[in-house]
Amino acid sequence: MNIPNILTLLRILLIPVFVGVFYLPWGWANELTTLVFALAAITDWFDGYLARRWNQTSAFGAFLDPVADKLIVAVALVFLVQITPTPWMAIPAAIIIGREITISALREWMAEIGQRAKVAVSMVGKIKTTAQMMALLMLLLAGSDHELLFGLPLYEIGFVSLYIAAILTLWSMIVYLQAAAPILLEENKKEEKKEKKMTKQ
Prior knowledge:
Layout: H1 3-22, H2 29-53, H3 59-83, H4 87-112, H5 123-142, E1 148-149, E2 152-153, H6 154-200
Antiparallel strand pairs: 1-2
Helix pairs in contact: 1-2, 1-3, 2-3, 2-5, 3-4, 3-5, 4-6, 5-6
């Protein structure tokens, strides 16, 4: 257990805190909710940075880090749909959560056949994550009252950023699927050959 992994575990432990704070009956609950989410986002950056800097990467960390990210992002998206229960908020939320499930399943399958490196995190994925985190921070801070920050319409900026993140989410998914497609087709052909041999026997 090293510091990067401890930070990742801390991010998971922050999820119930995030949920509890969101439902507090206080006028400044959305500010506190945003602070907890921001803290989780900071640990996300630091655990990866420290793991590379101190050469403390591990199989456990490689598994846990993306799980922690997806969990807190999914919870935040559910909260945003609750705050603004409209199709326009549900659509990007469904796209982002659906993409994460799809890519997680793809990576698991690729790992089983020893090809996980083919679907490693790309630059598009990193840009998507940045846009997504910024959008969630602004929307959580704006809350249901659509509060302003220094005169800036946080909700409107966050809403547009969320759609940008959703578009980048689809783009990055296509990039991953294109990388995995030749391997998927090759494995499918192998399975077909095995079935034909078994049929002949």
